[in-house]
Design brief:
With 177 residues, the chain is mostly helical. The chain has one domain (18-175). The protein has helices spanning 14-37, 41-61, 67-76, 88-109, 114-139, 147-166, 170-175.
């Protein structure tokens, strides 16, 4: 009788299995950077948004961590909610490939590409809406993984970001000038 297949646990698999744990470390480093660099204004808001994203993903994927199964069942009516369509591989691709990249670039280029700051703010607001209303209404639940960070981090940061982002002239949103 053959043994069931198990996930590889070598160094080549570390990021795939622990990216959200790495995110908590990165959130701490971003927090230290924000304090040391004494950032302010839009620059501060965008770096805090990045740190909030890291903490938010930790809540979704590690503690309590049942977000993949929740999204698979709520949005996709998956017969295998622990594996399809959001699984370990697709979570890495979406969250690191799109999420980390967009939020990091927004923090780096900030006033030079206001449109990117607007985009990540819209994503954060989308997280607030989905976690506060959609999951809770569809599943008749009070809490879901990602709700606490949506309300405690994304909501105040997104609210704070609207002033500097909305003060940009339309041409600044496109050109950064």
């Amino acid at each position: 009788m053959s043994k069931p297949a198990t996930a590889k646990k070598g160094p080549e698999n570390f990021l795939r299995l622990h990216w959200f744990d790495l995110g908590i470390v990165l959130a701490s480093l971003v927090g230290a950077y924000v304090l040391i660099a004494r950032l302010s204004g839009l620059t501060l808001v965008l770096w805090l948004s990045l740190a909030a994203l890291f903490v938010h993903q930790f809540e979704e994927y590690r503690y309590p961590g049942y977000f993949p199964g929740l999204i698979n069942s709520v949005f996709f009516s998956s017969k295998q909610p622990d594996r399809y369509p959001l699984n370990t591989n697709s979570a890495v691709a979406v969250n690191l490939g799109a999420g980390w990249t967009a939020y990091f670039l927004a923090a780096i280029v900030n006033v030079h590409a206001i449109w990117l700051g607007i985009a990540v703010t819209i994503i954060s607001v989308g997280n607030i809406v989905i976690h506060t209303f959609v999951f809770n209404i569809r599943r008749r639940m009070i809490y879901n993984p990602g709700l606490a960070t949506s309300l405690l981090l994304f909501l105040p940061i997104s609210t704070t970001s609207t002033t500097p982002l909305s003060s940009a002239m339309p041409h600044q949103c496109l050109t950064g000038q």
